Amino acid sequence: MLDFDKLDKLIHEKGRLSIMTLLASRAEWPFQELKAQLNMSDGNLITHLRTLHQAGYVSLTKEKLERPQTRYALTAKGRSAFQEYLQLLEQIIQTGKGA
Predict the structure, then answer these.
(1) Residue 60: which residues within 8 A CB-CB, separation 6 or more?
(2) pLDDT classification of 44: cutoffs 50, 70, 90
(3) Is the Cβ–Cβ distance between 26 and 56 less than 8 Å?
(4) Structural domain of residue 22, as residue ranges?
């Protein structure tokens, strides 16, 4: 029996799921690239990143180049939470297919 309560509500929100998916795809992402890929406003993206950071799922690094730049990456906790989330989704999909 599937336990839908195990779906991580923090990740399950559409914007945060999008962010977590991109962050899982490579080591780190600059803020501006995340913003462009996700087509989010600064405020919306910052709010989601702040929530994920406060949960310990995302780390940030600030660099001072010609222009200040903030890079985001999944933490070990974030990567683990995302993998567990994906595993539960895979179980849900298999159950839905009658497998």
Answers:
(1) 49, 53, 70, 71, 72, 73
(2) very high
(3) no
(4) 4-96
